[in-house]
Design goal:
30 residues; mainly beta; elongated; single chain; 0% helix
């Protein structure tokens, strides 16, 4: 899975990622 952040993330931020198949992931950094 590729992780291409659009900016600096902090603890507790909610991040949305997509993999090479276009599947969307929504995670909370902890």
């Amino acid at each position: 899975m590729q992780f291409n952040p659009s900016g600096p993330f902090r603890i507790g931020d909610r991040v949305q990622l997509t993999d090479e198949k276009g599947k969307l992931y929504s995670i909370n950094l902890a």
